[in-house]
Write a structure and sequence with these properties.
The protein is an alpha+beta fold. The chain has one domain. It has 4 helices and 6 strands; from the N terminus they run H-E-E-H-H-E-E-E-E-H. The strands form 2 sheets. It has a 4-stranded antiparallel beta sheet. The chain has a two-stranded antiparallel ribbon with strand order 1-2. Strand 5 and strand 6 form a beta hairpin.
């Protein structure tokens, strides 16, 4: 009687297929979670860097404007600008990349990389405007605050993650806690840190967290 020297291998059983499928699903879930966490971490890192850059530009602006920080609104060469459109402030951020468009008008636009990536990804109305990402906490009074008025720069907020409705110092309710439930604030000394709602509440209970609400002097 002739025998088969190469017996046919049995296929995968249903149980084995199910085990393989479960392993694949678990690996995909782990990968997706890792990607999500990495993206959240990257968003937070970029937003923190941008906020530090804004305050560095603000300090440089003050150094060239008699100790005054960039005002919330100002008229430059007959044109009214908000703080993030102010040509002198923009040039502090863009440096040599600052350009002029037709008729010598300064280009005050910012690249998408300067926005909060969490805002850009969501693409709400007005996300291309810097104020859709960050709020500026300087007093709304004119002229803008002076460096000498910031008595505790390490505890006084300058810029903070906020929504497009965050207009000025008084709009505290529009702070955006979009980075794992926390806002990110850059302080007048240049450092930045994440803040929970309770953190902001505690800091707001002191006079130092918000800049002075009025300005004096020349």
């Amino acid at each position: 009687m002739k025998t088969n020297r190469f017996p046919r291998s049995p296929g995968f059983t249903l149980v084995e297929l199910l085990v393989v499928m479960v392993i694949v699903v678990v690996l995909v879930a782990i990968s997706a979670t890792a990607v999500f966490r990495f993206r959240k971490s990257a968003d937070k890192t970029l937003a923190t860097s941008n906020l530090r850059q804004l305050q560095a530009a603000n300090a440089a602006y003050a150094g060239e404007h008699n100790g005054r920080f960039v005002p919330p609104n100002a008229t430059v060469d007959g044109v009214r600008y908000e703080w993030f459109e102010n040509p002198d402030f923009v040039s502090q951020i863009k440096g040599d990349a600052a350009t002029f468009i037709s008729a010598g008008t300064p280009d005050t636009s910012f690249p998408i990389s300067m926005m909060d990536p969490a805002v850009v990804r969501a693409k709400p109305a007005g996300y291309k405007s810097l104020k859709a990402s960050y709020g500026y906490t300087t007093p709304s009074a004119t002229p803008a605050g002076r460096q000498a008025q910031i008595t505790d720069a390490s505890r006084t907020a300058a810029f903070i993650t906020a929504d497009a409705a965050f207009a000025d110092f008084g709009a505290k309710a529009n702070i955006a806690y979009r980075h794992s439930g926390k806002a990110i604030a850059a302080f007048y000394d240049g450092h930045a840190e994440p803040l929970s709602t309770s953190d902001v509440s505690k800091k707001s209970a002191t006079d130092a967290f918000w800049p002075p609400s009025s300005v004096t002097g020349p």
